Amino acid sequence: MNYGDPSTLAGAAGFDREFDRRVRTAAFDWLASQCSIHGEVLPLALLREGFTVGGRQVHVIGPKGIFKPAVMDVPLSITTAPKGPYHDVFGSDNLLRYQYRRDGPEHPDNVGLRSVMSHRLPLVYFHGLIPGKYMPVWPVFVVHDERESSTFSVAVDDVVHTNLVGSPERVREDPALRREYVTVLTRRRLHQRAFRERVLAAYRHQCALCRLRRDELLDAAHIDPDAEGGEPTVNNGLALCRLHHAAFDRFFLGVRPDTRQQSGVRAQPLHIIEVRPDVLDERDGPTLRYAIQELHGRPIILPPKSSDYPDLSSLAKRYDRFLEKAVAS
Question: The whole model's pTM is what?
Answer without folding.
Answer: 0.79
